[in-house]
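User: What would this chain look like folded?
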Amino acid sequence: MIGDISQADVLWSLTPGVAVHFLDCDGFRRVGRAAVQAQAGTPDWNDPLVPSTEASVDTDAYKTSLVAGRVLTQDPYVAPGNELKLVVGCLNDRQEASVRRLFSQAAGERGTRPRPGEWQTALSDRGVITLTAATPRPRPAVDHSVLDRARVRTPISLRAQGR
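Assistant: Here's the prediction, encoded as structure tokens.
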């Protein structure tokens, strides 16, 4: 869990290769563990559904959406639920559709927000293949006449014969 995600804590670059760097990492921790310092809140970077001092996987998902939306619109105040006016030419059609869908999804209830990996997939140059679940094979019929009658049961010896 990262906790404190804001414009002051994320640095990115496009050259020599695409990279994202986190600064001020005192809020990083494993889920369920305490941070080194009390959770900080940055104005206009708080999840509207929780107190500004609460950090969770879900608030990280919301703030990741803020980073993506604010970088791609060059608007420091855009938030999920607002119109997304993307910088022209920075995304292809697939990426733009994915970004719009995820940004809209981030306005939803806790537990429904896109995770960072979904943003990575949306912004990548690779296409996406939608898979459908396979239909399970039908189960074979059960012959209850074999199972539903009294049987003669004998003890089973767990020791090898002759011992």
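Residues 10-123 form one domain. If you want, I can go into more detail on any region.
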